[in-house]
Amino acid sequence: MRLPVWPMLLKGVDCCVMTQKAKGVLAIITSAFAFAVMGALVRLCDECGEAVSCFQKGFFRNAIAFVIALCVFLRTSRGIDVSAIKNAKMLLLMRAVFGTLGIFANFYALSVIPIADGQALNKTAPFFTVLFAWFFLKEKPAWRQIVAIMIAFVGMLLVVRPGIDVFSSSDPLARCIALLGGIFAAAAYTTLRKLALLKIDGAFIVLLFSAFSCIASVPLTIMNFTPMNLAQVVIMICLGACAAVGQFGITLAYRFAAPKEIAIFDYTSIIFAAVLGFAFFSQIPDVLSFAGFIVIIVAALRLR
């Protein structure tokens, strides 16, 4: 008799000698790695053929993630708690809307402004997540947690080093949209925490978000469609798979622990991105980047 994979995995995690916080840290680091790989695939796609618009990439990201989420949901779900869904319908909608706006804002900004500037502004998400959880979920962080997040933010700036003119006359709208992308992502992560407290099925959350984002991407994809070769199609499939892993990871992370305890570990995506950039694009981190890595690690250790 075949047993559902998802519950078995969760049961296996529960059997390990791990605290809820440790599980959350593991899940969010897994999510950060998956999203870092996804970012590398976005760049690789354009190097394997004609440049593809950010909207088209977003559509395939969501479409593949939706198929994976649907398979997981059908395989593991024991039925939908309709009453719970009704009580959380506004939160589910907010998660889908904020998450989709975050994707659109990030993809748009990265198509207009330098990638380093876009990353710096988008990676304000962990900071805002802690703030939102504090004000809206009453999960007040300790001073050491606030200090650790601020230290990690400084380390992130050392790595990506945005230009001094981040909000100058050079594409100020795109830069503001990049910052909004981080705020939207933080709002989405905060709703994930609340949905976890309401015991809403994680697979259902990912499924609903992927479906909503996919549908929202259709008009922009049609308007900016570019034919792709076989290599690009394969890359897009892998990109969507990484997006699904990232979404499941972040959903599980805030199910296990509060944002104030684990949001800082989302900054590890910058370290993963640097390693992937060196491995696949010969991008060698400089001294300041390595200093940033050390600062991020030190900040993370403060939360032990």
Percent of residues in helices comes to over 70%
Secondary-structure element string: HHHHHHHHHHHHHH
Number of strands: 0
User: Which secondary-structure class do the elements indicate?
Assistant: mainly alpha
Total count of helical runs of at least 4 residues: 14
Tell me the strand percentage band: under 5%
Low-confidence stretches: 1-10
Radius of gyration: 19 Å
C-alpha termini separation: 41 Å
> How does the major sheet shape up?
none
pLDDT averaged over residues:
77
**Overall 3D shape:** globular
In short:
This protein has 304 residues and is mainly alpha-helical.
Label this structure with key terms:
0% strand; disordered N terminus; globular; mainly alpha
What features would you describe in this structure?
The chain is mainly alpha-helical. The chain is built from 14 helices and no strands. It has helices at 5-15, 20-47, 54-76, 82-87, 89-110, 115-122, 125-137, 143-160, 172-197, 202-223, 230-256, 259-262, 268-281, 287-301. Helix 2 runs antiparallel to helix 11 (230-256) and helix 6 (115-122) packs parallel to helix 9 (172-197). It is globular, with a radius of gyration of 19 Å.
Produce the secondary structure layout.
Elements: H1 5-15, H2 20-47, H3 54-76, H4 82-87, H5 89-110, H6 115-122, H7 125-137, H8 143-160, H9 172-197, H10 202-223, H11 230-256, H12 259-262, H13 268-281, H14 287-301
Helix pairs in contact: 2-11, 2-13, 3-10, 3-11, 5-9, 5-10, 6-9, 7-9, 8-14, 9-11, 10-11
